[in-house]
Amino acid sequence: MKNFFWITVFLIAPFATISQNLLWQGYFSYNEVRDLSESENRLFAACETALFSKNRSTNDIKTFNTVDGLSGETISTIYHSEQLNRTFVGHDNGLLIMINEATEEITLLVGIRDQTGGIPPNKKKINHIYEHNSKLYISCDFALVEFKLNDFTFGDTFYNSPTGAQAEVLETTVLNEEIYAVTLNHGIRKAPLSNPNLVNFNNWVTFDGGFWRGIVSFNNQLVAINSNNVIYRFIGATPSPVLNVGQPFLDLRSRGDKLIATAATRVVVMNESFSQIVTIQSTSVPDLTSNFTSATIISNSIYIGTFENGVIETSLTNPTSFEVLLPQGPNKNNIFSLTVTPSGTLWATYGDYTQFNNPYPLDEFGLSKLAQEQWLNIPYSELLEAKSIVRVTVSPTNENIVYASSYFSGLLKLENDVATTIYNVSNSGLQSLVIPGNPSYGPDIRIEQTAFDKNGNLWASNGLIANMLKVLRANGQWQSYDVSDVLGGFTSNNRMSIDKNNTKWLCTLDEGLIAFNENFNNRLIKITEGQNNGNLPSSAVQCAVVDNRNQLWIGTRRGLRILPSVDRFLSEEQLTTNSIIILDDGLAQELLFGQFITDIAVDGANNKWIGTADAGVFQFSANGQQTLQRFTTVNSPLPSNVINDIEINGTTGEVFIATAKGMVSFKGTSTKPNDNLQDVYVYPNPVRPGFQGTVKISGLTSKANVKITDIEGNLVYEEISEGGTIEWDTTAFGKYKVASGVYMIFISTDDALDTTVKKVMVVR
């Protein structure tokens, strides 16, 4: 007999404190709806890593993501208890989250997730939640778990397979005080709830030994889905077929006198006599291509969750008009790369490739654009069949002209958000890779990164060919450059940067970093592993970024290196990079030793934001000697420690972080410095009681002197700006909080030729 295990309940405050709301913002996709639940007046939709709800009285749609306190883990199911006004969210890793809808307090219940006892981590998924008599019955991949709603603690765990071994429980229901559990491999198991010893597997019996996928109680009888795609109702213990749709059922639920069955392309609603009263085909929804995932009913409305387009709402009595419920957001959570324009517009791409630079299977996810707080999602069908789009480059002279790099189809040009040209082997200097012995293969044009030089020429990194460096001249002519002299063989390409000297820095999969400048007799240098070859920790280079002091920061799959000046390329035959040595507890250590670095971004104060493959985000000082901040899923709203890309809005200082499970931003203060003090502004102003953040003074010049005094002239703060913004924590030099009153801010440039005075009111 298996004994039940104890499950610990951890209560934590939500992330959404006053100060954190000011610092963080979530940009999540709500397209992929995993499950639905409802109350009398609200719909709850569980998406991949976030939630949204609709209030039927006000039509307001509210979103919930990691900035509000969710975990960022993949959501598997959702259940709303109308009696308690609490919503329970189950996850693939066993985490259970409880949301008090009245207070929006979030409670993380980690007992299933953190349970050991021989349960593999990949066997803790929560499949279904069922409420009965002040208890939740939680169907998991290893057993059935009880949760008591009277005190919000876990109770027993029922290993109800015929041998008491772990078994995947898919769904449960209760009829006539008997609990029925559908298992993956052991049929439907049942037991009387009056038995106080259900932890003993011998007290469970097999109700039906077939292969079932779901079960509900409806009209005082059991209804179940079989693996043969047929719905059966049980007359006693005998199953009688009700409906066969010829495709797997994904969801079955009863709501009052209605039974709702969902398959990928069909939702069927039946009455108590099992007559079909409504059938909705996915093809009947105009202008949308949707795969259904779940459906439910509230009053006279049907709500259908989809895999691509949020929730579709229609009428139960006249299902011919459809409304899409979809909060604004990007197409997908797993954003591969970001681009932020000088005006603050953000572009997101979803095409990707493996660690071996293999883009297969090819993606058709389109592009997303965020401008003036509005998302525009451009589908693949409008992008001239450009697959696996990995980067976006915006014209430096016209933000309405955009070039999107496809890691298969070539280079796509968009004007005013409309695709106009696809550059490929037929109309440009771009080339397809060639597979020896397979002359019919292709075209396969691997364009990773493009970048404009200061003369308006667009350079492209064209991988797996000898002439991997291409340029589209400002006059419309294409030209190629052969870099094979420094390569051991043809290599896959990663990112590319262009410095002030017009030197191109090309990152490669296994050949290190290649530097090229056509203006210096086509000078070509390779930096790779080995003390005499460049001193990189790995030949797999992910990124190379020029900072505000013309140093080149190089991120590889095994650590970080710096080239002290990009000017060295102009005079030296071999370039050698340096590691950054820091003191850690008095011991000399190499900064980010062995870390898989995915991206490096430089903010307005020349601080470095470095993303990693599994350790979150680091912010380092300009020289790397100080760790200013580190963000992970534990101490921040990051939904994942897998960082895909980082981009910074130089005007506002907002740091956009794309992870494998969603995008968030951190509203930092390292903005680009202004040329003068005409646009200095202070926020928030006034500082109201209870405010826990900092006062920002923005619009500064580089090295501006900022002094803050009280109304009587007593100095309480002074700082020299690095970028365009500084922060004041409303203390007198960090000693104590200043009193209520008006405070004067005196600002001057470093040469004292330009000055301005601002005021801020503090209310305690």
Automatic annotation (TrEMBL):
<protein>
    <recommendedName>
        <fullName>PorZ N-terminal beta-propeller domain-containing protein</fullName>
    </recommendedName>
</protein>
<dbReference type="InterPro" id="IPR048954">
    <property type="entry name" value="PorZ_N"/>
</dbReference>
<dbReference type="InterPro" id="IPR026444">
    <property type="entry name" value="Secre_tail"/>
</dbReference>
<keyword id="KW-0732">Signal</keyword>
<dbReference type="Pfam" id="PF21544">
    <property type="entry name" value="PorZ_N_b_propeller"/>
</dbReference>
<dbReference type="InterPro" id="IPR015943">
    <property type="entry name" value="WD40/YVTN_repeat-like_dom_sf"/>
</dbReference>
<feature type="domain" description="PorZ N-terminal beta-propeller">
    <location>
        <begin position="43"/>
        <end position="204"/>
    </location>
</feature>
<dbReference type="InterPro" id="IPR011110">
    <property type="entry name" value="Reg_prop"/>
</dbReference>
<dbReference type="Pfam" id="PF07494">
    <property type="entry name" value="Reg_prop"/>
</dbReference>
